[in-house]
Amino acid sequence: VAAQNCRKRKLNAILNLEEDVCNLQTQKESLKKEHSQCSRSISQIKQKLNNLYCDIFSRLRDDQGRPVNPHQYVIHCSGNGSIFIIPKHLVKSEQKQGNTKEQNQK
Does one domain contain both 68 and 23? Predict the structure, then answer.
């Protein structure tokens, strides 16, 4: 009787584990679909952002009325909501300084 009970417990444990595996496989497939949808959404948002960026630069003019070159300038949004057009070389140097400060603080 003890051996029979032991076999029954083992069989129940195996059945429970098989059910868990099946549930996890279903969850994995669901997460894969969600990941795929998120990737598509990110791609669409990046494309929209790129289109907006191009549209903004197509309308910008410097002091002499010439179009602003998007290869030389970037759009910078500050934390308080202000938007600036900054030369790329200044942004790169600021990022280097920011990274150096962050490393020094660590």
Answer: no
